[in-house]
């Protein structure tokens, strides 16, 4: 999510692309804001008229009453119109924030798994909270203040020039210096604010990791260490904020100083004119009103500029994420077969390496798994077993001509079509903080869910009895990531989630590792019966899990080193046979 190569212009165009969708509302709000400003500009003219007629024959109490009523009416109108323009301008900024958040979430959902392997959750949450809030302020409050500054400043200057050109030039002489300071500090504010946002992301990541791993923290008595580490990140966050505040602390007093200097020059030069009779009292007082109206936008411009720079810095961070390429979808040559996937898998001389890696993870893999067949996969940790099955649902790009489903190159099949046809159960089962029912039915359309299929999936995964012991049964809400369940219960729940989809292809990636031998046999028997006509790939480290498969392969350092049935591999005397002997020995000891 680098922002170094993103120019400011692109960040502004990014924000404007969202603002265009609310153009009518924004224009209406700006017109109402300009109407309010016009009302404010009229009031000094009324004051000038009243003061200039003091002591003259045409002066009367009627004029004072009319003027007071006029000012009151303008004040009422300004109150009503100010509410309306805020509604027209603040609502779009909230809608822009909402649309950006939805677009950001949608983009994140479609990013490849490799992105989440290297990006911290806290950094992503910082984008969703702080950065989107900064963009909202830049497209809402900053827009209001900028419009106010441009219109009010310009019109105040015009009115001051109509009163006295020379006095106007003297009074506004110090103000161009403010623009120079804005230009000087703009880039500094952006960089400081980016550092603040990044340190906030670090804090979020640290907190998220500590809470997610709270059992490990408590189990290893690391509460104090976690507090110290979190405190250090908070110190860094505060330090970055202080650096930003120091820049802002220098800028704002300088802006205020030159604004006050302008007032001082007005009284010094304008007061002499009033004493000398070349400027009326009414003109001087109204000029004072106008210089105040002119100075407010100038002095507020520093605050607006700060909001805008923060918004630009956050927009660059959002753009950095938006420019992260989603999953590579190779153009589909045809829409895929209308018939459901049968599950015939063919792999021809498949080699694969991760992006940026210097060696292949898989080399020269050849497999032919008939529809409805089963393949067991055995191998040491890191041999490439999970990578192989990950390629089946196109989690990573696959070379053309190396992987086929039902005779069609996987690159010619749409991703949703492939993935809806595969039920995948990983070793590290992820469960949502929701009911057991909703966790099992996660991949189903609500209209296709029924109680009987839910219980059948639970029985097949040998989890139904456990669920029946819970007070609320299938309506029981489990904790975050299923923290209230045991490891075996999590795995069986994940198996039920995959089975209920009735996928043509089922992949069990060491999905029975946390289940005892007796339950394992029960699950395998039920799964075999349930998926008799489905293609299945079973990764395991226990021979008992794969021995019933039609064919078994051993993967060693990315290549298939052995293949055959259980009996053939045991007779072969290789790695599989040695592993079988070792596990049989342990099983024999366990039964004594």
Structure in a nutshell:
With 592 residues, the chain is an alpha/beta fold. It is 63% helix and 9% strand.
Describe, in plain words, how this protein is organized in 3D.
With 592 residues, the chain is of the alpha/beta class. It has three domains: 95-322, ABC transporter type 1, transmembrane domain (ABC transporter transmembrane region fold, Up-down Bundle), CATH 1.20.1560; 341-421 and 505-592, P-loop containing nucleotide triphosphate hydrolases (Rossmann fold); 428-502, P-loop containing nucleotide triphosphate hydrolases (Rossmann fold, 3-Layer(aba) Sandwich). 63% of the residues lie in helices and 9% in strands. The chain has 21 helices and ten strands. It has helices spanning 8-19, 23-52, 61-109, 113-118, 121-139, 141-163, 165-172, 176-212, 214-219, 223-276, 281-322, 385-392, 415-420, 436-440, 451-460, 464-468, 487-499, 517-530, 543-546, 566-572, 575-591, and strands spanning 345-352, 362-369, 374-379, 403-405, 408-409, 422-425, 505-509, 535-539, 551-556, 559-564. The strands form two sheets. The chain has a six-stranded mixed beta sheet with strand order 6-7-8-3-9-10, with helices on both faces. A four-stranded antiparallel beta sheet has the order 2-1-4-5, covered by helices on one side. β7, α18 and β8 form a beta-alpha-beta unit. 32% of the residues are buried.
């Amino acid at each position: 999510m680098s922002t170094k190569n993103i120019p400011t212009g692109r960040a502004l165009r990014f924000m404007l692309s969202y603002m265009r969708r609310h153009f009518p509302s924004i224009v209406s709000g700006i017109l109402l804001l300009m109407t309010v400003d016009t009302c404010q500009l009229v009031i000094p003219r009324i004051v000038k008229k009243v003061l200039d007629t003091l002591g003259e024959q045409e002066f009367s109490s009627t004029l004072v009453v009319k003027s007071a009523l006029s000012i009151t009416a303008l004040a009422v109108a300004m109150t009503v119109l100010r509410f309306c323009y805020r509604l027209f301008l603040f609502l779009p900024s909230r809608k822009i924030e909402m649309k950006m958040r939805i677009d950001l979430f949608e983009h994140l959902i479609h990013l490849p798994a490799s992105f989440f392997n290297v990006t911290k959750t806290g950094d992503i949450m910082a984008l969703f909270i702080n950065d989107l809030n900064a963009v909202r302020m830049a497209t809402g409050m900053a827009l209001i203040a900028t419009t106010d500054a441009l219109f009010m400043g310009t019109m105040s200057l015009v009115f001051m020039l109509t009163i006295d050109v020379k006095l106007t030039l003297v009074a506004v002489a110090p103000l161009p210096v403010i623009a120079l300071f804005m230009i000087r500090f703009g880039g500094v504010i952006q960089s400081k604010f980016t550092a603040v946002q990044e340190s906030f992301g670090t804090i979020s990541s640290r907190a998220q990791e500590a809470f997610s791993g709270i059992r490990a923290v408590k189990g290893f008595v690391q509460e104090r260490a976690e507090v110290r580490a979190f405190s250090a990140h908070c110190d860094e966050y505060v330090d970055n904020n202080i650096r930003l505040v120091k820049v802002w602390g220098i800028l704002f007093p300088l802006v205020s100083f030159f604004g006050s200097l302008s007032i001082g020059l007005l009284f010094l030069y304008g007061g002499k004119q009033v004493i000398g009779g070349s400027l009326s009292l009414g003109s001087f007082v109204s000029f004072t009103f106008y210089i105040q109206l002119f100075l407010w936008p100038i002095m507020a411009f520093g605050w607006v500029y700060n909001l805008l720079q923060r918004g630009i810095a956050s927009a660059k961070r959002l753009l950095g994420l938006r420019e992260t390429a989603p999953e590579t979808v190779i153009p589909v040559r045809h829409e895929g077969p209308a018939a459901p996937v049968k599950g015939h898998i063919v792999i021809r001389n498949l080699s694969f390496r991760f992006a940026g890696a210097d060696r292949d993870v898989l080399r020269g893999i050849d497999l032919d798994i008939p529809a409805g067949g089963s393949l067991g996969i055995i191998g040491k940790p890191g041999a490439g077993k999970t990578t192989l099955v990950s390629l089946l649902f196109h989690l990573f790009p696959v070379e053309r001509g190396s992987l086929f489903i039902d005779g069609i190159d996987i690159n010619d099949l749409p991703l949703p079509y492939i993935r809806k046809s595969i039920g995948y159960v990983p070793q590290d089962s992820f469960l949502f903080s929701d009911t057991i029912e909703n966790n099992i039915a996660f991949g189903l359309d609500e209209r296709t869910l029924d109680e009987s299929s839910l219980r059948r999936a639970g029985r097949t995964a040998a989890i139904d009895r456990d669920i029946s012991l819970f007070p609320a049964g299938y309506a029981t809400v489990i904790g975050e990531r299923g923290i209230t369940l045991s490891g075996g219960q999590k795995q069986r729940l994940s198996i039920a989630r995959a089975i209920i989809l009735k996928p043509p292809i089922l992949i069990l990636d060491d999905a029975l590792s946390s289940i005892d031998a007796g339950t394992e046999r029960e699950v395998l028997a039920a799964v075999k019966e349930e998926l008799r006509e489905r293609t299945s790939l079973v990764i395991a480290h226990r021979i008992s899990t794969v021995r019933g498969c039609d064919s078994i392969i051993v993967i060693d350092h990315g290549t298939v080193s052995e293949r055959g049935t259980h009996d053939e591999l045991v007779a072969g005397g290789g790695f599989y046979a040695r592993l079988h002997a070792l596990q049989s020995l342990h099983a024999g000891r366990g039964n004594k």
